[in-house]
Write a structure and sequence with these properties.
The complex is a heterodimer. By secondary structure, chain A is of the alpha/beta class. Helix content of chain A is 38%, strand content 25%. In chain A, the strands form two sheets. A six-stranded mixed beta sheet of chain A has the order 6-7-8-3-9-10. In chain A, strands 2-1-4-5 form a four-stranded antiparallel beta sheet. Chain A starts with a strand and ends with a helix. The chains are: A alpha/beta, B alpha/beta. The interface between A and B is medium-sized, with 27 and 24 residues.
Chain lengths: 252, 406
């Protein structure tokens, strides 16, 4: 579904990603590990086509077509969506308005259908009427992002740390919804959607049971393998050693 | 008394205003034909009716407690549908009520500048609205100052009095017909909010790019009185300068004002208000949203002077600059003359954050759609202090005004 070849990405003139290759098939969910600043978020932003993340080299193909030069909204139309880690505040634009936009209803009221969706994330009607991300707590941001993705219902979903800051009361809920959004409750052969998740916690791994994990280091995918093995190596030895072992043992 | 006013006005005939570019009053004619009175407001021609609706005036008078329409120099309609409420031409009111001289030029000195002097020396009506003590007028009063003759000057003097414990909601629309290429509107407005009374004043300006406007407004609020102002300007204008002064004179007097400006073309706008907190526990809030584009220039002012115990004031000004040839100067002023009060301001002027555009694009909007959503959101202030139905109507009115420019 997603195929990235020899990608190089710059932000503000700084090389963040180089020689990156990644392939995600329909029905698969991949996890992206790596230390802070290694380029995980940059990769997602580049896949989504956010202009500040400049592709200097390489191609990104989605559902068989080259999307490297497509604007973000065209990629979204093709079926991409993302849950942002640090989305911007927009004054006067309510969370409910964002849900309507994600639903493809541009000038709609915040009506029953939006309120019903909100309930799935324990989001009240009052909360839907708040300016999006303005004064939201960390956990509220996550729920708001997932609510918008739920409305958007994309085929390929990216989650940038969807579980950080979520309180215990909501973590199961978030896990279930992400599972559902990624067709994880279907048999593998029936799974239509695919995803890429950045996470630091074990919770998502247990809940989603991803198909593959990658370790990013210095702007490249340094190591890939079965999630449980990669996690074990990271836990035992840290990212750098994990990559070394990975190369030696040939997990990739 | 009248003589003294005239003398003082005469002495200020050439006194330039402290703010705003100087307008040549003589450039506009004081003479114009009188217009016939209407028996009902709905008699007005379809063309003019639309001009009125654009500024929130309902020709059918539906859901209105009273109406006032002044066309050029003629008061063509004035009606009251609520007991305890009075509406008429100020010129007529001054003749009818001798006591009115206690209010005339009491909130605004007649020799403030050449514009106040001009209104005193060459007044062309204006509205007088008064609600008697204890009377709460639920439905709004609508008043409209309308210019349909080219190159005229309209010099109105408005007086609004809310007696003790009364409540009054006013929708004022200032409009100009398409056929008018240039005109000058001078409007002196004096508001008196007595003890425990409340006035809400919602004003929509719909001028043209050849129109100059110099309103002069002052509000005096007594103990526990409330004055709420909502203002929108979203259509072109040549030059507009206004700086209402609101005196929170009484104990716990409160005021809040919200202004929305969308300045286009070559508009030159200097706008803001000053609140003087003179009563203990008095409160003020000044909120403005300003967008400039093309070659428009806006000076957005907000002054709060704290002079009494436990006074509280806040200014919030946000501006968006959409072109490299437009300009916003945000000038908040806080002045505290004692220690037991609390004044604050926040101001932010800038361009639309690209991050916000991209976020919306990530939810499927094109760049243009995203920009328009952000602008709408930016101008989306909550209408507070108005009864629900009126707040909804005001919101609709504001949305409609913005719809036309975007």
């Amino acid at each position: 579904m997603l195929e990235i070849k020899d990608l190089a990405v710059e932000v503000d003139g700084n090389k963040i990603i180089e020689r990156l290759n990644l392939c995600i098939e329909r029905g698969e969910v991949h996890i992206l590990f790596g230390p802070n600043g290694c380029g995980k978020t940059t990769l997602m932003m580049a896949i989504l086509g956010i202009p500040a993340y400049k592709v200097k080299k390489g191609r990104i193909a989605f559902k068989g077509g080259d999307i490297t030069d497509l604007p973000t909204n065209e990629r979204v139309k093709l079926g991409m969506g993302m849950s942002f880690q640090h989305p911007p505040e927009i004054r006067g634009v309510k969370l409910g308005d964002m849900v309507n936009i994600a639903l493809g209803r541009k000038e709609a009221e915040i009506d029953e259908s939006v309120i019903e969706l909100g309930k799935k994330l324990n989001i009240s009607a009052d909360f839907l009427n708040r300016d999006v991300n303005l004064g939201f707590s960390g956990g509220e941001v996550k729920r708001s992002e997932i609510l918008q993705l739920l409305a958007q219902a994309p085929e390929f979903l990216m989650f940038d740390e969807p579980d950080s800051g979520i309180d215990v009361g909501n973590i199961e809920l978030i896990g279930d919804l992400i599972s559902k959004l990624l067709d994880r409750d279907e048999r593998p052969s029936k799974r239509e959607r695919a995803g890429l998740i950045i996470t630091h916690s074990g919770f998502i791994l247990e809940h989603i049971k991803p198909d593959r994990a990658h370790v990013m280091l210095n702007g490249r995918i340094a190591c890939s393998g079965r999630p449980e093995e990669v996690v074990k190596h990271i836990m035992d030895d840290g990212f750098e050693r994990c990559v070394e072992r990975c190369v030696v043992e040939g997990v990739c | 008394m009248q003589e003294e006013i005239s003398t003082r006005a005469y002495s200020a005939k050439d006194k330039k205003a402290l703010l705003g570019e100087d307008v040549e009053i003589e450039h506009y004619t004081a003479e114009t034909e009188e217009h016939d009175a209407l028996t009902t407001l709905s008699e007005i021609s379809e063309e003019y009716g639309q001009d009125l609706r654009n500024v929130g005036i309902e020709p059918s008078e539906k859901d209105r407690s009273g109406s006032f329409l002044q066309r050029d120099h003629s008061v063509v309609f004035s009606a009251v549908r609520y007991p305890g409420l009075e509406i008429m031409s100020t010129t007529d009111a001054v003749k009818k009520y001798d006591w009115l001289k206690e209010y005339l030029w009491k909130a605004i000195p007649v020799d403030t500048d050449k514009y106040t002097a001009e209104v005193a020396l060459c007044q062309t009506h204006g509205y007088f609205i008064k609600v008697e003590a204890g009377s709460k007028v639920a439905m709004p009063v609508q008043s409209c100052l309308f210019i349909t003759s080219d190159k005229i000057r309209q010099n109105v003097h408005n007086i609004v009095i809310a007696e003790e414990n009364s409540e009054l909601h006013i929708i004022t629309g200032c409009s100009v017909s398409h056929s008018v290429s240039s005109a000058l509107h001078l409007g002196v407005s004096e508001f008196y909010v007595k003890k425990g009374a409340k006035i809400t004043f919602t004003m929509v300006h719909n001028w043209g790019d050849g129109i100059e406007i110099r309103p002069r407004t002052a509000v005096v609020i007594e103990d526990d009185g409330v004055f709420v102002s909502n203002y929108i300007l979203a259509t072109p204008v040549k030059s507009l300068q206004m700086f209402p002064i609101i005196y929170c004179k009484g104990r716990n007097a409160r005021t809040s004002s919200q202004s929305i400006l969308y300045a286009t073309g070559n508009a030159n706008i200097d706008i803001g208000s000053r609140v003087v907190l003179q009563g203990s526990g008095s409160k003020a809030e000044i909120i403005s949203r300003v967008i400039v584009t093309d070659n428009a220039k806006v000076i957005a002012r907000g002054d709060i002077y704290g002079e009494a115990r436990d006074a509280k004031g806040h200014i919030e000004c946000r501006g968006l600059v959409l072109s490299n040839t437009s300009e916003i100067d945000s000038i908040p002023v806080l002045k505290a003359t004692r220690r037991d009060l609390d004044l604050s301001h926040e101001a932010a002027v800038g361009k639309i954050a690209e991050e916000e555009i991209h976020y919306l694009m990530a939810r499927g909007l094109s760049e243009d759609e995203a920009t328009s959503v952000i602008i709408r959101g930016f101008l989306n202030v909550d209408i507070t202090g108005l009864p629900d139905a009126l707040a909804k109507e005001t919101k609709k009115m504001f949305d409609m005004s913005l719809e036309k420019v975007m």
